[in-house]
Design goal:
The protein is mainly beta. It has a domain of about 90 residues: Immunoglobulin-like (Sandwich), CATH 2.60.40.790. Helices cover about 5% and strands about 35% of the residues. It contains two helices and seven strands; from the N terminus they run H-H-E-E-E-E-E-E-E. It has a four-stranded antiparallel β-sheet with strand order 1-2-7-6, with no helix packed on it. The longest helix is centred in the N-terminal third of the chain and has 5 residues. It starts with 6 loop residues before the first helix and ends in a 16-residue tail after the last strand. The relative contact order is 0.20.
Length: about 150
Amino acid sequence: MRNDKFFPVMRFMDPDKFFDGFDFDMMPMFFGDSSNFNARVDLYRKDGKIFVEAELPGIDPNDVDLHVYSDRVTLSAEKKFDSNESDKSKSYHRTERRWGKIERVIGFPVEADPESAKANFKNGVLTVEINEKSQDKAHKKLTITTEQ
């Protein structure tokens, strides 16, 4: 017999069946709650505009609440569990798709003009386009005086 401390435990484990009895209700403890998830977001600037692109698969664009401010955009939505309660013949063995509330606040790197904001939804991706607020280039050169 080997002198390995774990050998007595490991010899009874079948690697092919290791996860068969695993309690998947514990998954939120390790990976976060599957009933809540965040939309994956890209934020970038191009040609004097700020763009926010958010992946919202399986969400109806009419169910998205979107607000644009001069320093941020907020979005919230809810993806409902796609289950037909009247269909009792379904016996789920695995469900990996995520559902629940999505709430994001995305800060802008520069000040934006909320009045210019436009939103488009295509293939599960929400794109928000906002003009950057023009920075006033007028300035005054100051002469520094000294006191003696």
